[in-house]
Amino acid sequence: MPPPKDVVKIAIQMVGAIPQLIDLQQTKPLASVLKDVCDAWSLPNAEQYALQYTDGRQTYITESNRGEIKNGSILRLTTSPDQEAERLYSGIQSNNSDVKTDSLKKLASLSQDVTFAQEFINRNGLKKIFYIVEEGNDTGEMLAHTLKAFMELMEHDFVSWETLSAAFIKKIVSYVNMNAVDASVQQLSLSILENMVPTSRILFELVKKEVTLDRLLTHLQVTNAQLQLKAMALLIALLLAASDAERREMMDYLRERNIRQFIHKNIIHSSEPLADEMAHYLYVLQSVSLNLCERRMRTSMDPYSQEQRELLQSLRQTAFESESEAPTSNFSTERRRSLCAKEFRKLGFVNNSNPAEDLRRAPPGLLALDNMVYFSRHTPNAYSRFVLENSSREDKHECPFARSSIQLTLILCEILHVGEPCSETAQAFYPMFFGQDHFFEELFCICIQLVNKTWKEMRATQEDFDKVLQVVREQITRTLSLKPTSLELFKTRVNALNYSEILKLRQTERLHQEETLAVPVLELRERLKPELLELIRQQRLLHLCEGTLFRKISSRRRQDKLWYCCLSPNHKVLHYGDVEEGVNSPPIESLPEKIPVADMKMLLVGKECPHTKEKSSGKQNKDVLELAFSIVYDMEEYCLNFIAPTRYEFCLWTDGLNVLLGKEMTSERTQTDLDVLLSMELKLRLLDLENISIPDTPPPIPKPPSNLNFCYDFSQAEQ
């Protein structure tokens, strides 16, 4: 007979005593449980003790979290949080440096527990920490423990970051700006400033003023990967908290300091593999930089703006100034207007009498004009060749430069997600972005020449304009998917992917689709599906057994805390627990928490998850919703919440959990993998039928012969 649900069998340890095995009644007050435990060991003053987990984060047991205790848990009888808080409160004020250091070290460890943190803060403990930082001159181990304890205490959100004193903030800033400081102190100081920046405008301005961009760039150039990461985190926090004008000013300064080239050489191409967190920050830096184009992209051309009219006229003058034999000033107004209209028509403007009308559409707005001007000024030979070459063609065969530029700018904005908010979890950045200043404009220069090249290869006319741009979009996206490391490599690859190559790829894909739609092939696919689905199930379970690192993400900021989850080799238990940065695959024995697969009841995804309901529903959380899933377990009372690092991991984990629950795999990755496996298997099976058309219906079975006399009788031959 199973034990009652409100009774949990646990072990309780104490130093120097024989452990107790008890049946913990969850309905019994915790104070009474502690009194019984203390009485068994003849300990007086039971109110001075508390129970605590022995592994993991060693959380204190309280009335609010006691329901999380599982059968077989091992607890420790220890000093109560209020007693421990009182002892450490006194210890950090000790005149003995060893006692003070040990107390701060213990404080940094215990402050992760919300119960202890509340007790310590209630004793005005943060004030003492402020005093140690503000008045102390130590820059070594003691200070590192102090800052670590401060970070952990602030993590619980009991105290606002805006309440920090100016003296404390200046001291933290000084550790970042000093050279002769322990690296761990600088890392913690950078993390503290990173947390401060998003909380208020005043703190942002203070940090931006005190910690210069030059200082952050100095930290980015060190060989210590963790210090480099924290410096990048603060830089990104400052950029995200800045106004549009401030962000533009900061990015201009960083460009002057060649930050892109430094990142390209020393971070992306360093000997060490790129950490996930750094990959995310590089993605954000790329996104913030590209979004500087958004204002111009969303601004229509103003026909009354002198500056914009001059830019437009410069396009005409650069292309045709050598053609005019006589200065246009000698012509009548009507003649000059007629000549300008003719030249604008040659440039490819639809409305040649008033070309500003072509740029009224936003997006791409003025960004298209900027790109055309950049192309004409920085590659004048290529620009003149493009325009003059098409001027000499028949009207219907000329490639319209202006119209193509406007549409191409829009295509590049869509491909590069210009104007879209940064994702909280994405890590997909283009390495070539950091190898080139004016990346967007330089990419445009390559692609507009690609438009002309593809136009000629397709022998296109004006009616084929949309088809040509569709091919160009495909050329760009296929090349970008290869992640070229430089614009030169991109240029080489995108030009190699000419129209005939695109046709071959399309034909291959079409033939493959037609092959797989034949009735006999469809029947074969259906027969192969169960076997291949089982193969996918086994792969998913194997991936769960290998385990994955997950990040804890709050609505306030991207957390740097990690936890690991994996499935036991016998597929019966999920193990999980917190891990330190740098630990990629901890042994399964080191993970303190576990959930029996038999207790798992349901899988929730997206908006159904409890941890996504707590978040605001802004655009920036859309990506988190797409990566969120939860396991409901133990009579549907508890949930284990996940935010997958990538969509790929999300698909594999949700599929694997569905397999454990005996349900169908529903992710898009399952269909993709199944299609790949089916395609491979079908090609192998149909290898002998190459170039033989497969009929839709099987050939008729011939009638049986009138007699079977043609059969050879082996028995008579043996006689």
TrEMBL record:
Keywords recorded for this protein, A-Z: Apoptosis, Phagocytosis, SH3-binding
ELMO domain sequence ranges: 307-480
GO biological process: actin filament organization; apoptotic process; cell motility; phagocytosis
Signal peptide span: none
GO function term, MF aspect, one: SH3 domain binding
UniProt xrefs under InterPro entries: ARM-like, ARM-type_fold, ELMO_ARM, ELMO_dom, ELMO_domain-containing, PH-like_dom_sf, PH_domain
Listed Pfam families: ELMO_ARM, ELMO_CED12, PH_12
Biological function: Involved in cytoskeletal rearrangements required for phagocytosis of apoptotic cells and cell motility. Acts in association with DOCK1 and CRK. Was initially proposed to be required in complex with DOCK1 to activate Rac Rho small GTPases. May enhance the guanine nucleotide exchange factor (GEF) activity of DOCK1.
Name of the protein: ELMO3 protein
UniProt lineage: Eukaryota, Metazoa, Chordata, Craniata, Vertebrata
